[in-house]
Design a protein that fits this description.
- With 101 residues, this protein is mainly α.
- It is built from 3 helices and no strands.
- The longest helix is centred in the middle third of the chain and has 36 residues, at 46-81.
- The protein starts with 15 loop residues before the first helix and ends with a helix.
Length: 101
Amino acid sequence: MKSPAERPAARVARKPQDKAALARRINRIEGQVRGIGKMIDEDRYCVDVLTQVSAVRSALDSLALGLLDRHLHGCVQRAVRTGEGDAAMDEAMDVVSKFVR
């Protein structure tokens, strides 16, 4: 399995209902971020803004964990079955390490 830098943008076929669910989550997060911008424009209390920042971080973390779960149970399992498991596991660990920094 080539590293992300060595291959063209990888594409993954997702079920339409999964794509729709991801789009809804992203749109919700985008709305939360816009809300934070509005709160700052309105000079809202810092703790209230920070609470919303925390909510956005949690929403992004949840989205990322869901994507990682699908990646491990889909792409990585497939790579293991085709003999490319070591590279897929290395790539997965690189991704996981970005979340624990």
